[in-house]
Amino acid sequence: MNNTGMKGIFTALLTPFYDDYSLNAQSLKELIEFNIKSGVNGFYVCGSTGEAMLMSTAQRKEILRLVKEITGDRVKLIAHVGSTNTDDSVNMALYARSLGYDAISAVAPYYYSYPVSAIKEYYYEIARKSEMPLFIYNFPTGSGFGLTPEICAEMFGEEPLLAGVKHTSTDLFALNSFKREIPSITVFNGFDEICLAGLAMGADGAIGSTYNFMGSKFVALYDAFCVGDIGKAQALQNEACKIISVLCKYGVFQCEKEILTLMGIDMGPCRKPILPLSDEGKAAMKEIVRSL
Ligand code: MN9
């Protein structure tokens, strides 16, 4: 079993764009430096939060390269290489390997529905061709495929390059089962609004989008949990949930970009067909930034 030893808080990195959707490399650098100062342990690059599913493979590779150039060896890096087809994913996985990424991750192939045997083959081929530790990105509501404890046990038994699961689901019994049945794997909680609950059920850490601007809050939550200060961890989770509930109302990624832009890092628009943030949403983000 591929034990990465990864733990703690990983930011699912947003992608700053110019108005023509080209990459804003200066803002990317500022965002990364701000997050490293917040104390996060690593970055999950080009995932849902990074709008990867709306980007070309070429642009995804450009981001993977720049993030590694900017971070060097200061934090752990996981490249999300999931796509609708195995070949593109293998191509990106090989590129991530050549750049020196610590691990890769992939969402299940989406749009068409596949039998479990096809999904397994997709993961095995990406892992074997790249020879990289691979995290299954389990996002049932996004991909249409839900990892069960049974399928998880089969897959980790069959392929030693599988390293863990990024579990973006509110089913924390499933998260607990993955980790309890195969303790050597690394499991990340994927919904920030239940970060503490995920840790309590056995997650080694958490990957999330709101850490882009609330990294220090979640690092403090993780530290409080690790030393058993559950009261403090709960208070921090409550503070975060209050903010996340507003983000969910207006559109999470648009809101996060607006917040960071107000904080001084120009994040630009989200890619279409994501809609721009409404004026009401913008006003609500101003309030949040004032309260941070
Ligand atoms: O990467 C993110 N998942 C998705 C994790 O966006 C699908 C989360 O951080 C959520 O954005 C967040 C708000 O629901 O928990």
Q: What's the mean pLDDT score?
A: 97
**Please, what is the CATH homologous superfamily?**
Aldolase class I
SSE arrangement, N to C: EHEHEHEHEHHEHEHEHHHH
Unreliable residue runs: none
What this model shows, in words?
By secondary structure, the chain is of the alpha/beta class. The protein has a single domain, classed as Alpha-Beta Barrel (TIM Barrel). Helix content is 51%, strand content 13%. It is built from 12 helices and 8 strands. It has helices spanning 25-38, 57-71, 86-99, 116-130, 140-143, 149-158, 172-181, 195-200, 211-226, 230-250, 252-262, 279-291, and strands spanning 8-12, 42-45, 76-80, 103-107, 134-138, 162-167, 186-189, 205-208. The chain has an 8-stranded parallel barrel, surrounded by 5 helices. The termini are far apart.
Short summary:
The chain has 292 residues and is of the alpha/beta class. It contains twelve helices and eight strands. An eight-stranded parallel beta barrel has the order 1-2-3-4-5-6-7-8, surrounded by five helices.
Set out the fold topology:
Blueprint: E1 8-12, H1 25-38, E2 42-45, H2 57-71, E3 76-80, H3 86-99, E4 103-107, H4 116-130, E5 134-138, H5 140-143, H6 149-158, E6 162-167, H7 172-181, E7 186-189, H8 195-200, E8 205-208, H9 211-226, H10 230-250, H11 252-262, H12 279-291
Parallel strand pairs: 1-2, 1-8, 2-3, 3-4, 4-5, 5-6, 6-7, 7-8
Helix pairs in contact: 1-2, 1-9, 2-3, 3-4, 9-10, 10-11, 10-12, 11-12
The chain binds 2-(acetylamino)-2-deoxy-D-mannose.
2-(acetylamino)-2-deoxy-D-mannose binds next to strand 8.
Question: Could you list some keywords that capture this structure?
Answer:
single chain; about 290 residues; alpha/beta; TIM Barrel; eight-stranded parallel beta barrel; 12 helices; about 50% helix; about 15% strand; binds 2-(acetylamino)-2-deoxy-D-mannose
